[in-house]
Specification:
It holds the Pfam family Sugar_tr. This is Major facilitator superfamily (MFS) profile domain-containing protein. It catalyses: myo-inositol(out) + H(+)(out) = myo-inositol(in) + H(+)(in). Helices cover 73% and strands 1% of the residues. A two-stranded antiparallel ribbon has the order 1-2. α13 packs parallel to α19 and α14 packs antiparallel against α15. The longest helix is centred in the N-terminal third of the chain and has 29 residues. The chain is globular and about 75 Å long. The N terminus and C terminus are likely disordered.
């Protein structure tokens, strides 16, 4: 599932502080509410396109017994309606970096909510497919912006010791959004007028209002303020996040570290997107490609097949009440995301292995729940945490933007192709449940990818991760990480001297 952390500086707020800064944790965790918007929108389209009222408004009448509502939409229309959101999010993700740099992380999130609401208005009042589709595009632009800006804000503002869990809370919010959508769809499905689908769609105004209103009250990222030369505002912001006064020694010390890192970044010069793919001693190209493929493989696990087309799939499989089953699968998704908020590399391998075994099974509901459980506790949240940690300082924003865009690009491709793979009609493959053999094969590839390309980063600072890439390969990262943690600053200082010595000789 989409979304993704971006920290555009090596320093993380609270790195040298205590573990009791509840205010900063609460504020950065609240911003994860942006995940509700994405999760709810994904889940709501799965249900409303099976409602009689929606099909009557946007589909065509039929006497085919395969369509008990008396109306249907073609595979091409279904593909367009579902997947076009991801086309909007792709461009929204690419726009996130310049938006964040120009108006800030906080106000960028608020702007994204306004764009999202424009799309919701269009979908709510639409009486034809074209306007509904355009509304999905605008909503997608908003969600794409949020998917980068929210975890960017979290990464730059959350204390280091709990950074991973805070950023992973964005994925948890996505699962909660999916669950709420399933409950709302089930509650309105039997209405015999347009309110059946207009209520679930319009409810998204509430989620946008909560997020935008809350962000108005939260501080801006101190790092962005320092970058803009607003030192006094940065001190006030950091003071709120750490529970200190703006002129306290702790706040001044952390601001000095931010300034130092900013000076180092400026000294490196401006970096282009092309620089993200250069073969350098610290393996920038490997890291960029790892981030891009992490997001691709997350989508290729097939999870959004369930969340985009779950209601349709259960219905076509003979399930009496597919809306209720969708609620059950979403409950599993919410609960099982919690273990993944503290995991990393090892959980990924286990998750991909279990996903690949599940995909060949035919015990439908039980094994779909099993499938969702392992995704939720592994590839769901951990993908965002890893992606936010592996990029070097000077290229982090650009590389993260491309990684997130990769997620949405594959999201769009899979969303568009699935009806043609699953449906039994002219021009479609008619795979139905056999589509899980495809997801099983891709999940097996995830195991190989994890072993060779994903390092173990838990408990390491961003600078230590940079050293890890310089001195070892991801497959050997467990041992190197143990040495970094065991020997601490002495080992790190030794490695930095070695790297600088090598640079001088070169």
């Amino acid at each position: 599932m989409p979304g993704g952390p971006v920290a555009t500086g090596g320093h993380v707020i609270g790195a040298s502080g205590s573990k009791n800064k509840f205010a900063g944790i609460a504020m950065t965790t609240f911003s994860a509410f942006g995940g509700i918007l994405f999760g709810y929108d994904t889940g709501v389209i799965s249900g409303i396109k099976e409602m009689k009222a929606w099909l009557r408004e946007f589909g065509h009448p039929t006497t085919d017994p395969k369509h008990p509502t008396g109306y249907f939409i073609s595979s091409s229309t279904e593909s367009l309606v579902v997947s076009i959101l991801s086309a909007g999010t792709f461009f929204g993700a690419l726009l996130a970096a310049p938006v964040a740099d120009f108006i800030g992380r906080k106000w960028g999130i608020i702007l994204a909510n306004l764009v999202f609401c424009v799309g919701i208005v269009m979908q709510t009042v639409a009486s034809s497919v074209p306007l509904f589709v355009v509304g999905r595009v605008f909503a997608g632009l908003g969600v794409g912006l949020i998917s980068c800006l929210v975890p960017m804000y979290q990464s730059e503002c959350s204390p280091k010791w709990i950074r991973g869990a805070v950023v992973a809370s964005y994925q948890w919010a996505i699962t909660i959004g999916l669950l709420i959508a399933a409950i709302v769809n089930n509650s309105t499905q039997n209405r015999d007028n347009a309110s059946a689908y207009q209520i679930p769609i319009a409810l998204q105004f509430a989620w946008a209002a909560i997020l935008a209103g809350g962000m108005c009250l939260l501080p801006e990222s101190p790092r962005w303020l320092i970058k803009r030369g607003r030192d006094a505002d940065a001190a006030a912001s950091l003071g709120r996040l750490t529970g200190q006064t703006p002129d306290s020694p702790e706040v001044e010390a952390e601001l000095d570290e931010i300034r130092t890192n900013l000076e180092e970044e400026v000294a490196l010069g401006e970096s282009s997107y092309l620089d993200c793919f250069k073969f350098t001693p610290n393996r920038i190209a490997l890291r960029t490609l790892t981030g891009i493929f992490i997001q691709a493989w997350q989508q290729l696990t097939g999870i959004n097949f369930i969340f985009y087309y779950g209601t349709t799939f259960f219905k076509n499989s003979g399930i009496d009440d597919p809306f209720v089953i969708t609620i059950v699968t979403n409950v599993v998704n919410v609960v099982m995301t919690l273990p993944g908020m503290w995991g990393r590399r090892a959980l990924w391998g286990v998750g991909a292995c279990c996903l690949s075994v599940q995909s060949a099974c035919k015990v439908l509901i039980a094994f779909v729940c099993f499938y969702i459980a392992f995704f939720a506790s592994t590839w769901g949240p951990i993908a965002w945490v890893i992606t936010g940690e592996i990029f070097p300082l000077q290229l982090r924003a650009k590389a993260m933007s491309m990684s997130t865009a990769s997620n949405w690009l594959w999201n769009f491709g899979i969303g568009y192709a699935t009806p043609y793979l699953v449906n039994k009609e002219a021009g479609s493959a008619g795979l139905e449940a056999k589509v899980f053999f495809i997801w099983g094969s891709t999940c097996f590839c995830c195991i190989i990818f994890t072993y060779f390309c994903v390092p173990e980063t838990k408990g390491l600072s961003l600078e230590q991760i940079d050293l890890m890439y310089t001195h070892t390969l991801p497959m050997n990262s467990l041992e190197y990480r143990r040495r970094l943690i065991a020997e601490g600053p002495d080992f790190m200082h030794h490695d930095v001297k070695l790297r600088h010595s090598g640079d001088e000789k070169a």
